[in-house]
């Protein structure tokens, strides 16, 4: 089985490094599936899950935006934040979700703080989904 090297990197350091058979994630333009030998590509990512298929297993990483860069032998994901499913603190994500929902109720939809709360809610929901490996 052919593989491609994948690195997920954040400003705090590397989060994931492995040879995988397929990378699936959500770019701002839609779902992306990357196999070894994919043509070079740079795409902005949504707040989403990165699924990394290898040897019958799939690793899940939650990312909050950033960029995906595909080169012939290497896929690099540069994300603002990234957590492996097993490193996600579920209680913390639940608290962040509640806080964000509360803020959205207090703000008008066009307000900057509403948009900020909406993004915080998306990050929390994404982390909860990835922690359950449901994406
Ligand atoms: P919170 O309000 O709980 O900090 P947040 O969405 O505002 O959530 P971020 O700014 O996206 O947090 O992330 C700050 C740092 O905390 C990053 O290093 C991120 O990986 C980590 N982080 C945030 N939430 C969690 C979580 N639920 N489990 C593990 N790490 C987390």
From TrEMBL:
Q: Does the keyword Cell membrane apply?
A: yes
User: Where on the tree of life does the source sit, at the highest rank?
Assistant: Bacteria
Coiled coil start-end: 90-134
List the keywords (alphabetical): ATP synthesis, Cell membrane, CF(1), Coiled coil, Hydrogen ion transport, Ion transport, Membrane, Transport
Where would one find the signal peptide in this protein?
none
Q: Its principal location?
A: membrane
Subcellular location per UniProt equals: Cell membrane
Q: Where is the ATP synthase epsilon subunit C-terminal domain?
A: 87-132
Q: Which residues form the ATP synthase F1 complex delta/epsilon subunit N-terminal domain?
A: 5-82
InterPro entries attached to this UniProt entry: ATP_F1_dsu/esu_C_sf (IPR036794), ATP_synth_F1_dsu/esu (IPR001469), ATP_synth_F1_dsu/esu_N (IPR020546), ATP_synth_F1_esu_C (IPR020547), ATPsynth_dsu/esu_N (IPR036771)
Give the way it sits in the membrane: Peripheral membrane protein
For this protein, what is any one GO molecular function term?
ATP binding
Would you name any one GO CC term? proton-transporting ATP synthase complex
Q: Indicate the quaternary assembly.
A: F-type ATPases have 2 components, CF(1) - the catalytic core - and CF(0) - the membrane proton channel. CF(1) has five subunits: alpha(3), beta(3), gamma(1), delta(1), epsilon(1). CF(0) has three main subunits: a, b and c.
PANTHER family (UniProt xref): ATP SYNTHASE DELTA/EPSILON CHAIN, ATP SYNTHASE EPSILON CHAIN, CHLOROPLASTIC
The protein's role, per its UniProt record: Produces ATP from ADP in the presence of a proton gradient across the membrane.
The family note in this entry says: Belongs to the ATPase epsilon chain family.
Name the UniProt record assigns to this protein: ATP synthase epsilon chain
């Amino acid at each position: 089985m052919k593989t491609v090297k994948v690195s997920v990197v954040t400003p705090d350091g590397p989060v994931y490094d492995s040879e995988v058979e397929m990378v699936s994630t959500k770019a701002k333009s839609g779902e992306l599936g990357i196999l070894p030998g994919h043509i070079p590509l740079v795409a902005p990512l949504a707040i989403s899950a990165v699924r990394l298929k290898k040897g019958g297993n799939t690793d899940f990483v939650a990312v909050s935006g950033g960029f995906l860069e595909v080169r012939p032998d290497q896929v690099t994901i540069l994300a603002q934040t990234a957590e492996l499913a097993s490193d996600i603190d579920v209680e913390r994500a639940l608290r962040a979700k509640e806080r964000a929902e509360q803020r959205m109720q207090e703000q008008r939809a066009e307000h900057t703080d509403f948009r900020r709360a909406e993004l915080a809610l998306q990050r929390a929901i994404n982390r909860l989904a990835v922690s359950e490996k449901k994406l």
